[in-house]
Specification:
single chain, four-stranded mixed beta sheet, four-stranded antiparallel beta sheet, alpha+beta
Length: about 260
């Protein structure tokens, strides 16, 4: 159900945007992952393929697309993946292992501040985070590092830029001035209307962004069945998450970490 909701949302975003947004790219990959988790291989392949068409930079995308293509009986001859991965999948070695997927909320969303040239138009300023990525170890064995799955900081700024770009457009400014002169109280009334409209719309928008992390990071890896100690540590040396899990053959485990440092 959640996969279908996300899929519908991604297609709606695609319909209203002429260019692929970072949000769309990541949403297609996420819906592909959710379809994969419930063994809907064909829908998973379709959304992974859309993510690839969008230009999403994701180290797991080709691997996932190829894997779903094989399971959905699609032509995967043009998808480039390492031979070792093909061998691992073709020999069904994955059935003997457990797959772990970790999502990490990293840092805090940007801070609102007035534009330095026009106080009625807000801008977002990034907040510094001490971790560009996280390292993952399972039973003290290195499993690699996370990557940025969705840069919310960048998405928020782009969203705000598009939202207020037309207010900075000269033709709109000319139109506003002309219309304001026709009002009983002149330009002052137009300024108040504009300021009030900008403030109310921006205030609602900021509330939604302010509750979010700077970015969402992600990693996928395989682990042996049995008892596993999983440690996720940031570049600042702080342990973001530690899990003691008993994994089973063929199990797929999704973990979430909230690390807003």
């Amino acid at each position: 159900v959640q996969a279908r909701k996300i899929d519908q949302r991604s297609r709606y975003l695609e319909s209203i945007n002429k260019e692929w947004t970072e949000e769309e790219k990541s949403i297609y990959y996420l819906s592909g992952t959710l379809y994969d988790l419930v063994n809907n291989f064909d829908s998973s392949y379709i959304d992974y393929n859309r993510a690839k068409e969008s230009g999403l930079k994701n180290p797991f995308l080709n691997l996932d697309l190829w894997s779903m293509g094989v399971k959905a009986r699609r032509d995967v001859s043009s998808i480039k993946v390492p031979n070792s991965y093909k061998k691992f999948k073709n020999n069904r070695e994955e059935k003997k292992m457990a797959e772990v997927i970790i999502f990490i909320n990293n840092g805090w969303s940007p801070v609102k501040t007035p534009h330095k040239y026009n106080g009625d138009i807000p801008v977002y300023i990034s907040r510094i985070t001490s971790n560009d990525y996280f390292k993952v170890k399972v039973n003290r064995i290195d499993k690699g590092r996370t990557f940025s799955f969705l840069d919310i900081d960048k998405t928020a700024k782009n969203n705000l830029e598009k939202k207020f770009s037309y207010y900075r457009n000269r033709s709109f400014a000319k139109f506003l001035t002309t219309e304001a002169l026709l009002l009983p109280t002149g330009i002052g009334a137009g300024g108040v209307l504009l300021r009030g409209g900008l403030h109310s719309r921006e205030k609602a928008d900021f509330r939604s962004w302010s509750m979010m992390p700077r970015e969402v990071q992600m990693i996928k890896f395989y682990a042996s069945p049995g008892q596993n100690n999983i440690v996720v540590k940031g570049l600042d040396g702080v342990v973001a998450g530690e899990f003691d899990l008993r994994l089973k053959k063929g199990q797929r485990k999704v973990l979430f970490i909230d690390h807003k440092h």
